[in-house]
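Hi V.,

You were right to ask for the full record rather than a summary. Here it is.
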Amino acid sequence: MNKIAFKNIFLILIKLSPPLKIFVFTSMLFFCFISFANAQSPRYQVTGRILEESDNKQLVGMESVTVSIPEYTVGTITNENGYFAIGNIPSGKVRFKAKYIGMVEIDTLLEINKDLSLSFVLKKENFRLSTVVVTATNNKAGQSTASLISRNAIDHLQATNLSDIASLIPGGLTSNPDLTNAKQLKIRQVSADNSDASMMNTFGLSIIKDGSPISNNANLQVMNPSVAGATTTLAGGTPPTGGTDLRLISTDNIESVEIIRGIPSVQYGDLTSGAVIVNSKAGRQPLRVTAKTNPNVYQFSAASGFSLGNNKGALNISGDYAHNTNDPTESYQTYERSNIKILYSNRFFNKLSTNTSVDLVYGADRRRQNPDDEITKLRQKGNNIGGTLNTNGILRVGTPWLSNIRYVVSASYTSKKSYMSQLYTNATSPYSMTTNDGTILSNKSGVDIFDNNGNKITNFSGADANLYAIQLPADYEGRYDIEGKEINVFAKVTGTLFKRLGNTNHTVLVGADFKTDGNDGDGKTFSQTAPPYRNLSAHNASFRPRSYKDIPYVKQLGLFAEESFRYSIADHQLQITGGIRYDKVSVVKDVFSPRVNASLEIVPKKLSIRGGYGITAKAPGTLFLYPELAYFEYVNINELSNEAIPADERLYITTTRVFNTQNNKLKIAKNKKAEVGFDLNINQATLSVTAFLERLQDGYSMSPTINSFKPVTYYAYQRVNNEIVQTEALPVLAKYYIPTNNLQSKAKGVEFDLNLGRFDAIRTAFSINGMWIRNQSYSSDYTFFDGNSGTGEKNRTHVALYEKGMEKNNNQRFTTTLRATHNIPEIGFVVTLTAQAIWNESQWYNFGNDSIPVKYISKNDGLVYDFDPSSKDDDEFKPLIRKVVDKNYITEDYPPAYTFNINVTKELGNYMRVSFFANNMFRSYPSIRSNREPSTYRQRRQSFFFGMELSLTL
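Predicted structure:
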């Protein structure tokens, strides 16, 4: 093929659309693999049997054990007698793995230079093992930086929900296991939980259960995002700007969890901060009944898996109920959770392994009326009822070039119903019921009102002829309901190709995924004569009902390809895994995400260095893509309290303005992640150190922009000599919030994990991990200031624009956690003592020009003008000068804080296990004198907390 032909092919490839480029690239890899099929190195077969010890101490074969050689992406499942066979294995040193629910995984090294016949005995994963792992373990070198958490670690911790296990990862803080508030998990983020940066961090964390992500994208249980920027949910639960509420995920039927903090494989999309991979129990297991209790929670669960016999597969059934009282002195505030899971697993034709499950979940935050509260009479409840159908599996092809095909398909439906009922006071405000911009209504429906010159004041269409304007009373009881019906569908298929070429192993992963999220709920509903309480910070703002049924579904298509390259240089292993992902979202612009991880052994089996770089991307949720309209009410005349006018002649006229808050220029948020680190192994001790740098760009927030201040002319009227006369025409700005990409965030730090192993002489294992981290977050837009603007229309000011990125918020923390785990295998006893120290915690701001605005938005026409510093003392512009608060320049830091915890687990025979924990048993949280407010003292309160668990195996 000549140069001209190559040039033509290159030009054609450039002109292809992004999906076709991925397809062509994947096809080229595919045919390259086929072309190598005839140039194979010698192939061998590994056969054998997996055994277990029965109740009568006999060794019997185990059915449905997963047997694999990860380096070559080949594997199989044992038959009913425990036998297995894996063919087409190239020569060399490989890892052999065998795993089954409730058993200790076999992970050993094999030398393949001939056909092998092996036999292994799986041991039960319990607390009678000589080495019990109750901490998080690290991923192998060359893979994503991640922590693996086993079933034993979850049991020993006595976690009540998925968020509790975060204390096991480097930098994770111990938290008291309760279900009081919505639980979320942050990765490499120490900003305040309610900050935009923290919300974006949890929103960008993908919770993947049994291969399918749990989506929060269609969540719309939020009160008033457009008029006040607030995204707090109504009656509990996580907001649409955050991640999944982890209270809904019980840990009792989880086999293992992997928390990816670093650069994930390209097969994982729609994320920025990381991923949590949850694997449910599947297969045969004895009936286990568990009861837990602590000062806030009591919980009951039961799980069992049994074989259906005669190659009919296995059925695993589990259930869970938990009840939480937020505070023993406030029993009217509670949370309840129920889970039921039915999972069927089977294998067909000795090649296809499948798991099909149905998950049902119920969660409810409830606040009954406080018997002592006769002023607000506040009541609220948030229900969450849903179900998920999931099927996933692996087809082991086993050809010389194609190892396997994996698939997952899931569909979920979640009904969310929230309400809040409250007696409002000092609630006088206008409400006109219309949803049409520019409508002017009076308190007399369908009646036109004219001024003294014969000009019509009112303005309404035929659709609004029956509506009227009202003045809400000073006191009334209102109820606000939000109903969401979230529908999420996900499908994914991947193919794994493997080829051995000389001393190099090449594994290629190609695949595609599709997801769609929508909300078919009735949305926000309330009585038109008793609407929600107005937001005092949003001048003239109002509310309207909104149905979610007309909101389009958001669709995402992802294509990805990745190669893992391994090469051996005189026993020095080099591994590079790199790939690219393409995501197409139905509303916003598409995005490419390249990612690479690499490692090199410097000293074989002793020291390796590693590094990685990648881009992760998270699409905006429904709230950001289809925000609600912003409504404003302006009172033109109010005669309702004028007793000099007959009651039936008094006028009340309002003007309604409506603004579209959608941002058609919204982009996909991206996080650029970079890491370097090393892994050191000396005898039984291991040390892993990772330095990371992350930069989130175009994060989401509800914020004002220069386009969200709209000029409005407020017309005021009075009755003069029984005629309606216009008295004023005042310019004001209607301010609202729109979805933006203004949030920028940076994170840098160092994580370490030192595991000294078990010292048999004292039967104790020691480990210490920790993290130093610094976060910075800021808005890349202007800082808008109208803090001196009055509530009355006459007192409104222009809006000052201070320089972009003026205020940067910084948070820093250094944490270490030391664990000593003592176990006596003969009696099934394990005790872990934990000493956690927060050595440094501080917060400060970096300010740019925070004293003089650079521009301003004129209230007269809504246009942006340059600000002349020489006019800062003029009466018109003096209100635009914000007061510089000197104390905000001072760093707020905290002295070291220490806490000591204990976890104890004891097996009683073969059928009972008792566990106990006590958090903050000994602690040091000294009172802290504020650097910014010297007269104020603060204390990081972590109260003494304890709990107990009883588990029966029947």
